[in-house]
Each structure stands twice: as structure tokens, then as C-alpha cells.
Amino acid sequence: MLDFLQAVSDGVLFGATYALIGIGFTLVFGVMHKINMAYAAASIGAAYSGLLLLEVMAGAPPAAVFACAFLAGGLLGWVVYLACFHFIPLSHPLATLMSTVGMLLLIDEVVVHATDGMPQNYPAMFDDVMLHAGEFTLRGDLLLVFGVCVAAMACLLALLYRTRLGLATRAVSQQPIAAQLCGIQVAQVNAITFVITGLLGGLAGAMIGASVGTLSPLLSGPLTVKGLVVTVIGGLGSIPGAIVAGLLVGGFENVFQLYRGVTERDLYVMLLLFAFLVFRPGGIFAPRGGRD
Amino acid sequence: MKKLALAVALALAAGGTLAQEKTVRISGFGAKTGPVRSFGINSEAAMLAAADLINKGGGVRLADGSKARIVVDFYDDACNAEQGISVIRRIAGTDALVAIGPTCSNVAEPLFGILQKKVDDPGDTGLQFPVFTDVAIKIGLARISEWAFRNVPNEMTMYSSLFYWLRQKYPDLKTVWGGVEEDFAHSRTTWHVVMKDRATANNFQVLGESKWLLADTNFATQVREMKKANADIIAISAHPFSMCGALKEMQRQGVKPKVLVGLTSSSSLETLQGCAKQAQGMIIPTSFAPVNKEAKFAAEQTAKFKGTADLHSMAAWENMFILKQVMESERISGDKSQIQADRRKIRDGLAKLKVTKGLLGDTKRTDDREADKPYLFVQARGNEWVVLHNPL
Amino acid sequence: MDFYFGLIQLIGVHTLLGLSAYIVLLTGQVSLAQAAFYAIGAYVSGMLTVLAEWHIVPALAVGGLAGAAAACAVGFPALRVKGLMLVIATLAFGEGVRIFFFNFDYQIAKGDIKVGPLGGEGFRQIRFFPENGWTTFDVMLFIWLFVVLVMALLWWFDRSRYGAVLRAVGEDEVAAQSVGVNLTAVKVSAMTVGGAIAGIAGCLYAHYTTHIEHASFNVLVATFAIAYPIVGGLQSVFGTLAAVVFVQGFLVEGLRELGDWRNLLFGALIVLAMNLRPQGLFWRRGA
């Protein structure tokens, strides 16, 4: 039982990073009805950019590295928007799917060129803290990651539901043409959405780097897959859904890793996804009718 | 790097070396795309450095007594099987006499598969081109084709010796626990086939293993198993990225084995770049360390071509000199119209070798075209790998 | 010359892989499961030629059928979802199949060595072609025989009522249904044909490389399967061929001489191509 609880808590805490990546996918989907395949790669790329700070300022505190990754993420989000979405007409969804795949490969390769593909040590906060309750332990750094993720999500929700920008974003996501008629500049809102998801991605990348302790271009592939799975389980376009699904997938995979071994672990994650597709295709918080 | 090769060639030509017209081409190939890019860069640098040295010494002596300069080029196979096959066919289509590569075992395996299995078998239309591998290390691959040769360390011997040494040095240690990267051909084989077997053979009790995947990020569950087992020795068969992740988790959970053993390929700069602090004390058998004058010199020369000397790239360095020797002893013509005959001579020459000269001493060649290289044990201390023990 | 023959073989295999996604894309479905059918074809036919010592032709037929059967089985449940949900559902299926082969062992002793699939270590020595004296040129012709057959079949589909129905479903499902098109039949049949083509491609791939392992059938391969028809354009089967030549012939092999720039240009040129020609490379106005 202790093993089970431990596996769940480890997994759920780590799942916070899946949730952040899932939110990025879901937000772009909500606004543009498109998938940004380059998102996880850009997030990892942003985390690497944070390391640039250590190049110019050796011994910079981890928090500054995270901030640098956060900002680089925003910039990368904007670049991805320009390169993959801005110039491609909305009527060609497959073309944007492919352009983001191209971007994914490009970002990964730029990282490989910059580092020769060698894993890079990533700074962490509270990584020497371990909370004990008898046999049961909690990682201090993961609690921080979890806290940062929750705070970021709260900020995001506040931004979407409490500001004019958020109102415009939601308007575009629901009725792009009507929003345009009301004087909302759709292209601008789209670009801003990418910057916001990019910022979030940069933070997610930094948190992943911090919790793993090492960055490698190997990370972006599995994260893309997990992020997409989280997006679907949470329901396309649903932010609370992505959060809950991220934590759920994190816990679920860790439990199956405990009982069925690492080679079968991801098989069960895929089965979980199928279960959702069959029994609850709208995701955890299925929207009340309307869009698919 | 191509430009560099050209520049070197031009400089040498301008310097008025012997036999300006005659050249022999040795092609390298390996991964320069993706997470293993550093391997390709290092191998290429070592090959260029070795060629530079050989050419400065006059080049290769041909059958007619004239001298030929060695030309090196290097192709990127992106650690991808299809690209590896295309690359070897491309190389076979040039005037290259032999190829050195590849980086990845998952490229080497299909690549050796398209080579002719047995020489002089007219029924087998496989490619007839000698390949002399420097990096791809998964055990037993050269057996696939008689055109495939390898100068990679024999992990069976190395871990055998390592566990034997541990048995002598720490007689009170009893148990071993493994950590294995389950989805990567090399690391997986090394644990399940090599380490486990060799530890048992030296009277250690293998309690079990924790498994993870190449790109895994969360090692909490695996390290917990490790902690429960509380083995004296932990042997990790994984490449630097996931090994660093696991080591960091071990530190968090306070898992401190009495001895930490690592995978041959991890005795490189990558590990120190990713997690020098956590890797402290890790013992790895390796076929290269800059311990003598020759080895130091090779490392310096390779550094001039912007590469790092490690067990992989120095195999490429050794291969160049072995090939020079074979070309001379087999009296290749160097004539562009005799390429296939020269390739065959090189193959036969390589097959004949019983012993070759390596940077750490003599390497025995086995009947199945593999090497039994000298090795030593290194340990991570501070920001470098230092020699812990020389068993030979 | 061997190099060019080998490259043409590879282009042939990838064209088949792309065409398997092409017919599914015509119905408006984006399937990332093609790599799974490709894997099934590869493992099934490889086991038949190596373990059962069959000739390649029947092995290829069985590989194709296995791919078709798997695709048909996936087709029905996958119909419940569409759009991006389908993309991810098929991706999950593809990953599931890959993980299955990662855990799949079936070895028998043959002479002094054991052959057959061995989980994470893969399946080696699928050497039907060289062992039976086929030259690179022969293999190239063999592969292209199937490429031409499949292209002709799909081209004929495009000219027939069936092709019109496929495209009608792809353009507007509701409209197609309202004129009496049976959506289930159309989508599942397209998926099944695609699965058969991918199975054949997988068989040829396994015998081309002689060694397969789970990682040869990852998400990236699935992505390339759909990338070919998308980059080439869905107007005709030649778009897929053009895209494979562009990607494998130009981006991968043609740029090899550029050395270090090649891998950077790969992604960048795909982004550029989609910006310049969002309808695909091979696209004519009004055709």
C-alpha cells in the first residue's frame, strides 16, 4: 500500500509538468483549432536558452535561469507563430500541422548543434530537500515544481477570465468571424496566444529541466506524445481538463510502472487514452455540447 | 569539417610532399545529427588527425613502392539505419577503399546485414566492402558478415576483469543491483548478457535490476527498488542522459552503494557535463585514457581538429594506423581501376591480423573479427576521469 | 551505381508508406497509425521469410493482409472520433503496437544461432534478397513493381466513383452522408487499403534493412508517412512521390555534401515549403 501511495504521489507531482505542456497544446487548440507540434520542443529549447544565462553570468541563481527560460519561451512562441501559422491560410490545417513538425525537427537540431547533443546539467531549487513521513517521502524540488505549475495555471486562468485580452482570446476561440466583426484583431490575438503559451512552455521546460536535473534533446519526443495524450484526456481546449489530466497521467503511469514494469508502462497510458476516447470522448470536463 | 580536410590536403600538396598525385581514400561515417552528435564529431576529428600525421610522415607505401596520401571524408548517418545503408552504398560507390564507422549499434546491425555474409560466396549478393567499426559496441556484431571488423572494446573481458578485481579488492562485498536502460540495444545487452553474468561468475549475488528507458525523466520508483535491495555494488548500464537522471535521484533518496559501476560508453565528457557531482567515484572499464606518451599525443592531435579523445574516438585513431599497416603489408596498388581488388586485399589483411598496436598496448584480434583491447579502470573524480587501476 | 539503386529502393519504400497515408487522408482522416501497420507488415513477413523460410512474394502478401486486418480493426473504433482526436487516437495505437514489438520475443534456433524477433534487441538477419542472389538492381525493380501497381491502383481509384466518394467524405462528411454515402464503409475501406499498402511497405522495408527493431517504427516514422502526401499535396498520387523524392532524395541524400548544414536545413526547408506551398508541392490550379 505504501508503495502504491508513494508511486501515486511521485507520479502526480511529476505530472504537473505534463499538465503545463498539455495546457500549451490545449490553449492553441482552443484559439486556433490547430495543433502546435513544435510546442514541447520549443519548451525544451527555451529551457536550454535559460542555460545561456549561466554562460554570460556564471553562478547565476537557479531562479534567474528559470526566468530567462520563461522569457525565451515567449520569444520562441512568437517565432513559431510567425514561421508556422501566420503566413499559412487557415483553410490548410494540414500544412500548419506539417510546418510545426518541421519546426520541431529544426528546434531539436539547433539544440543539438549548440550542445553537440551532450546532456547539460540543469540547476534546481530545493533539490536537496526530502520530506519524510516514516517510509513515505516527498521530493522538495518536485513540490516546488508543482507549486510553480499551479501558480502559473492560476495566473493563466486569471488572464483569460479577468482581463480584456483574455476576453478577446476567448471571443476568438468561440467565434473568430464574429470577434473580427467586433473589432478584435484576430491575427494579433493569435500571436499573443502563442507568446503566452510560449512563456508557459518556457517555464514548463525549466521545471522539467530542474526536476530531471539534466537536459537532453531526447526529452522533446516523449513530452510531445505525453502532452498530446494529456490534451485529449483533458478535453481539447479545456484548461482545467489539461491540468487534471496531466496529474492523472503522471500518477497512472507511475502506478503501472510499479506493477507492470517500465517496458509496458506506456502501453497502459495509451489504453487509458482509448478508454477516454470510447467512454468519454469529450475529455474529463466535456464541454456542454457545441464543438467537437 | 570537409573544408578542413580540403585545407589540410591543400596545405600538404603545397608543402610538396611525396606522391602528390596518388591518394587512397578512407571514409568515415557516424552520427552527427541528434543526441549522439558528439560521437561523430570526435571520430571525424580523430581520423583527420591520424591522416594528417600519416601524410606528414610520407603517406602510405603502395605495391609499386610509390607513396600515396590518405584522404579522409566523413558522412553523417544520423544514427538511422536507412541512412547508414545509403551512406555505405554511397561510400562503396566512391574510390574509398575502406570505411570506419558507424556510431550506433542500431546502424551497424542492419549495415553488416547488407554486406556479403561469407566472402567468395557467389550466391550472396551482399555488398563487398570492408567496414572497420570504431564505436558501435553492442556485443557480437562482427559475426554478421565477413566484411565487418571491429576495434571496439570487448565488454565481456572488461567486466569480467572488473568484477574479478572488485572481488579481490573488496572481499566483504556480496551483492550487486543493476540499473539498465531497457530500450537501447547496447546498454540492455551489456547488463543482461555481460554484467550480470560476469558478476555472478565472480561470486557476487545479483539481487535484481531497475529498468528505465532512454528518454525517461522520473526515476523515483526505480531508485526506491534500488534502495530496498540495499546492494553493496550498483552497476548502471545506461547512457549519460538517463544515467545522470538516475544518479541524481539516487542522491535525493540517499542511495549510496559502496561501489558504483558504469557503462563503458559513459566514461566520456558527456557524463561529467551532465552530472559530475553525482557521478563521483563511479568506476568504469575503458579502452582509453591519456596514460602514456602516445595516448596523450593522440589526444592532443585530435584536439587540434576540435575533437575529444575518448574510448570511441581513439578507436578511430587506431583504425587509421592499422589500416595504413594493412595497406602496406597487403601491397595494395592504389590504382583507381583496381579498387575492388584493393578492398579485398584490405579485408583479407584485416582478417589475417592476430595482434594490432593500440594506444594502451597490443590488441588481440579474435577469429570472429572482433578486438580484445587492453583496458583499464577509470574513476570519476572532480571534473575528470582518472585512472584507478591497470589490470594488465 | 549501387548507391543510386539503393536510394531508389528507399524512395520506393517511402512512397508506399506515404501512399498508405494518402488514401486515408483523402477521406479527411489524419492517421498516425501507419507506422504500426508498417511494423506489422515488417515483422510478419520477416518472420515468414526467416523463420518459416517462405519466398518473399507470399510473405509480402501475408504482410499486406496483416496490415489490412489491423487497419480494418482500428478503423471501426477510430470512427468514433475525428479531427485531432483521431490523430491522437491513432498515435496512441501506433505507440501501442511499437511497445508490443518492444516486448515481443519469438526466437528459434537455426544452425548455431538463434533467429527471430528478440524484444528490445530487434530482429536481425532478414537477408532474403542477398541470400537468394538478388542484386540491388533486382530488388529495386521488385520494389518498384509494387510502387507502380499501388500508384496505378490509387490513380484509378481517383478516376473512379470510389475516388469521388472518398474525396466527398473528405470535403464534407455531412453533405456526403446526405446524398447517401455510407460513411463507415468508406472510411473503414480507405483505412484497410491504407493498411494493406503500409503492410507491403513494411515487408519491403524489413528486407531492405535486414534488421528491424521497435525504434524503427516510432512516432517520427508515422509523422513522415502523413508528411509525404501533405507536403506533396493531395491532388494526385504523384504529389506523394514528389514529396518523397524531395525529402529522401533531396533533403536527406542530396544535401549530404553540405555536411553540418544538412540536419539544420531539413526542418527549416519543410517549414519553408509549407509556407510557400500550403496546398503541397505538386499542385496545379484548376486541375
Could you explain how this protein is built, in words?
The complex is a heterotrimer of chains A (292), B (392) and C (287). Chain A has 292 residues and is mostly helical. Chain A has eleven helices and four strands. Chain A has a domain at 18-219. Chain A has helices at residues 2-32, 39-56, 62-86, 93-115, 140-162, 164-174, 176-181, 186-212, 220-234, 239-260, 262-279, and strands at residues 120-121, 130-133, 136-139, 214-215. In chain A, the strands form two sheets. Chain A has a two-stranded antiparallel ribbon with strand order 1-4. In chain A, a hairpin with a 2-residue loop joins β2 (130-133) and β3 (136-139). The longest helix of chain A is centred in the first third of the chain and has 31 residues, at 2-32. Chain A starts with a helix and ends in a 13-residue tail after the last helix. The model of chain A has no long low-confidence stretch (mean pLDDT 88). The model of chain B is unreliable at 14-19 (pLDDT under 50). Chain B folds into two domains: 2-152 and 291-359, Response regulator (Rossmann fold, 3-Layer(aba) Sandwich); 155-286 and 376-389, 3-Layer(aba) Sandwich (Rossmann fold). With 392 residues, chain B is an alpha/beta fold. Chain B is 41% helix and 21% strand. In chain B, the strands form five sheets. Chain B has a four-stranded mixed β-sheet with strand order 2-3-1-4, with helices on both faces. In chain B, strands 8-7-9-10 form a four-stranded parallel β-sheet, sandwiched between helices. The two termini of chain B are 37 Å apart. Chain C is 71% helix and 2% strand. In chain C, α1 packs across α11 (237-253) and α6 packs across α7. Chain C is built from twelve helices and two strands; from the N terminus they run ααααββαααααααα. The longest helix of chain C has 27 residues, at 183-209. Chain C has helices at 2-26, 34-50, 56-78, 83-102, 128-131, 136-159, 161-171, 173-178, 183-209, 219-232, 237-253, 260-276; strands at residues 108-110, 113-115. Chain C has one domain (2-218). In chain C, a hairpin with a 2-residue loop joins β1 (108-110) and β2 (113-115). Chain C has 287 residues and is mostly helical. The radius of gyration of chain C is 19 Å and the shape is globular. The B-C interface holds B 1-2, 32-34, 75-76, 78, 81-83, 85-87, 89-90, 92-93, 106, 109-110, 113-114, 116-117, 122-127, 144, 182-185, 188-189 and C 1-4, 6-7, 10, 102, 120-122, 124-127, 129-136, 208-211, 213-216, 252-253, 256-257, 259-260, 262-263.
